[in-house]
């Protein structure tokens, strides 16, 4: 039976920052302002700003809203953000 590891705080912070970077990069690549992304995703601009800075905790609902507003597959925003085993 396999057991799934839980990310430690450092791994979580790294993943959250990377997710925010991906959201920002997708937004900027489309020439959208933070406010237009917020409006298109029905999320408050301050929340979207926190997400982009790696400070916001994103629910599945928020993830889907952001992905739809960015016209990207939600998986593209989260692929590879899993656990890394640094213990060797």
Compact description:
By secondary structure, this protein is mainly α.
Lay out the secondary structure:
Layout: H1 9-29, H2 34-41, H3 45-52, H4 60-70, H5 74-78
Helix pairs in contact: 2-3, 2-4
Task: Using brief descriptors, characterize the structure shown.
single chain, 88 residues, mainly alpha, 5 helices, globular
Describe this structure in words.
By secondary structure, the protein is mainly alpha-helical. The chain is built from five helices and no strands. The longest helix has 21 residues, at 9-29. It is globular. The mean pLDDT is 89.
SS elements, strand count: 0
Gap between N and C termini: 21 Å
* Principal-axes shape call: globular
Beta-strand percentage?
under 5%
The number of helical elements comes to 5
Profile the largest sheet.
none
Helix fraction bin: 55-70%
Mean pLDDT: 89
